[in-house]
Design goal:
Rossmann fold, four-stranded antiparallel sheet, 457 residues, alpha/beta
């Protein structure tokens, strides 16, 4: 089968400037389908949300998959799955249907795919159940499920226990998800699929890509396991590699501060086998926003497997954050195991009446380096006639930053205490009143080079 899946994932979705995160590469390889006969069940979602182009493209993808397996199993596209392998079709909506058994006739398989129509809800548990029932427990063939779905479970029993039971019986589960037509539960797909998640789950927002996904999977399934694998990953100049972990298989080295190399002598030659490798990357420079991590990544092996890794992005936040007020200091309390009650003096707290706390954040845009900023926050309360009543004024000195260029500074957690006895809403319903406030801000540089008229002799 060769390399049947590849992935590249990040340990974090977003970071602050100069922070680190982990990058994980993963591969899965399996033996050749000719020497390793395989029973494959395609589990296809035909629920109502598949109407239109999603169902059309799903059919194209499933038929392309069948065509490639046909060619690979007997080196001829003769309409018959050879070498002891079989394919079956299960489709599902409110319930699942075994549209074929595990058979070798390409014409019968294609007819079952062409007959699919969309409608109904989404019952993943019944789909896994019907697919598992197709396998012959006494057969020595490898057992594979390829589940396609475009939605979350909306009817039936929980799918996870059925998927776990299938995996416990040696079934390998791949999941293809279409997220662009109502959303999917990515965590659920990863739970159903075989491990590692990154190697057995593929998600696309575009149904036009379904044919390519099915084609890539079928092409990889038909190749032998891979030997003399070399992967070279180069990160962009927004990052540098700061650490390399030992891979689960093979060896890895850091060639320079932007490049790592992972080598594996062989993978999946005799049975399905996965491998992963993690390295640590640190952000540097002034790159911010949604930043692509990859500069390039190359893969080679002796079997000429065609492997494509995704190019993930990470959100980099380079704003300077200032918190001018500390949070309240809590009092720690412990109760012994045999104590029924405890009495503690929590100290003094100047509480005059019930009230609200208003906490404000404000961002100062493009503050120049080496200049302090004077900031004032003003809060007023509006009565029923939109007349403003003063509620507070706070002033702060925002420290100067030492970035090379102007940058945004976020000032967080400016707190105002608003007692209920000052409520001017006029409704007279106590602390459940809706109270309306208005916040205003004034800011200017403290440090400047202004010299009015210069020195006078």
């Amino acid at each position: 089968m060769g390399i049947i899946s590849s992935n590249k994932t990040l340990s974090k979705r977003q970071i602050n400037c100069k922070e680190t995160f982990d990058v994980t590469l993963s591969l899965t390889a399996e033996p050749n389908i000719v020497s390793n006969p395989t029973d494959i069940v395609l589990i296809l979602d035909r629920s109502g949300s598949m109407q239109g182009s999603p169902l059309v493209n799903l059919k194209k993808g499933a038929k392309k998959f069948i065509e490639i397996i046909d060619q690979a199993t007997d080196n001829a596209q003769d309409g018959n799955i050879g070498s002891g392998s079989h394919i079956g079709i299960v489709s599902f909506a409110n319930t699942a249907t075994a549209d074929t058994g595990l058979i070798t006739s390409v014409a019968t398989l294609n007819s079952a795919v062409d007959a699919l129509t969309s409608g109904g809800r989404t019952n993943h548990a019944d789909a896994f159940t019907k697919a598992l029932a197709l396998f012959d427990p006494s057969s020595t063939n490898a057992k594979v499920m390829v589940m396609f779905t475009d939605g979350v479970t909306t009817t039936g029993n929980p799918p996870a226990p059925v998927a776990e039971a299938a995996k416990a019986q040696g079934v390998v589960i791949y999941v293809i998800g279409l997220s662009g037509n109502g959303g999917i539960d990515e965590a659920a797909l990863k739970q159903w699929a075989s491990d590692p998640d990154s190697a057995f789950v593929a998600i696309t927002p575009d149904d036009a890509e379904l044919e390519d996904l099915f084609e890539d999977l079928a092409n990889n399934i038909t190749k032998p396991g891979a030997t003399n694998i070399v992967i070279k990953d180069v990160v962009t100049d927004c990052f540098k590699v700061v650490g390399v972990s030992s891979p689960t298989k093979g060896s890895a080295t850091m060639l320079n501060n932007t490049t790592v190399e992972w080598k594996i002598a062989e993978l999946g030659k005799n049975a399905s086998e996965g491998a992963s490798f993690t390295f640590t990357v640190q952000h540097l420079g002034e790159c911010k926003g949604d930043v692509e991590v990859n500069d390039s990544i190359t893969y080679t092996d002796c079997e000429d497997n065609q492997v494509v890794f995704p190019s993930p992005t990470i959100l980099v936040n380079c704003d300077v954050v200032i918190t001018p007020e500390d949070c309240p200091t809590p009092v720690e309390v412990s109760i012994g195991g045999c104590n029924d009650c405890v009495e503690i003096d929590a100290g003094d707290l100047m509480l005059q009446s019930l009230g609200r706390i208003l906490q404000l954040d404000v961002t100062l845009r493009r503050v120049c380096p080496h200049k302090r900023v004077a900031l004032a926050a003003i809060v007023t309360e509006l009565d029923d006639h939109d007349i403003e009543h003063k509620r507070g004024l706070k002033t702060f000195v925002v420290p100067a930053h030492d970035r090379e260029s102007c940058t945004d500074i976020k000032v967080r957690c400016i707190k105002f205490v608003l007692p209920e006895q000052l409520d001017v809403s006029g409704t007279g319903t106590g602390i459940c009143n809706t109270r309306r406030f208005r916040a205003s801000f004034i800011a200017h540089y403290i440090d400047n080079d202004f010299d009015c008229c210069g020195d006078v002799d």
